[in-house]
Amino acid sequence: MLKIPYYQIEWLADFLNSIETNAKGNRMRNAFNDEILKPHYMRFQEYITELIELHSEKDEDGIMKQTEEKHPDYPDKFKVIFKDRDLFITDYNELAIENAIIKITEENEDIIVVIKKMILECDNKLSGQVADIYDQICLKLESLNI
User: Fold this and answer.
1) DSSP symbol at 22
2) How far apart are CA 104 and CA 84, in angstroms?
3) Residue 58, helix vs strand vs coil
4) Which residue of 23, 51, 65, 127 sits 20 to 30 Å from the alpha carbon of 16, by its own alpha carbon?
């Protein structure tokens, strides 16, 4: 079993895409991203949506209240008005560090073995927070008995 905090899933997918690899490595990377990481990432996004819904102010029709100001990261969306922004941030941070559980099965073991080797043998130059996340993931991969 491999545990990865939700906030690291997108980073891991992007990092894997930055690694040069052969044809088999590319197939395994695509399978890992699409079949293993993506469902966990989608679940994380659903949980975020639930948190926003839970913590947002609602109008008399039960619709989330929004500001007139556009969201900087999503130009087609407006900023939500929260009942208690600090409580939302606390709940979000708690969610972000929860682990996505990746079960190693007969069907996905070959994929995970290739990904493990790809990450552990990566020679990308890293620093700062990126290096910290990389080190955390390496430690988890090294502990796998596969």
Assistant:
1) -
2) 39
3) strand
4) 51
**Residue 1, both tokens:** 């079993």
Burial tier of 118 (Cβ tally within 10 Å: 0-12, 13-18, 19+):
buried
CB 37 within 8 A of CB 9: yes
Q: List, as one string, the DSSP characters of 73-101.
A: S-TTSEEEPBS-HHHHHHHHHHHHTSEEE
pLDDT in tens, the chain (146 residues): 999 999 999 999 999 999 999 999 999 999 999 999 999 999 999 999 999 999 999 999 988 888 877 777 777 777 888 999 999 999 999 999 999 999 999 999 999 999 999 999 998 899 999 999 999 999 999 999 88
Exposed/middle/buried for 111, CB within 10 Å: 0-12, 13-18, 19+?
Answer: buried
CB contact set of 34 (below 8 Å; sequence gap of 6+): none
For the chain, what's the residue count? 146
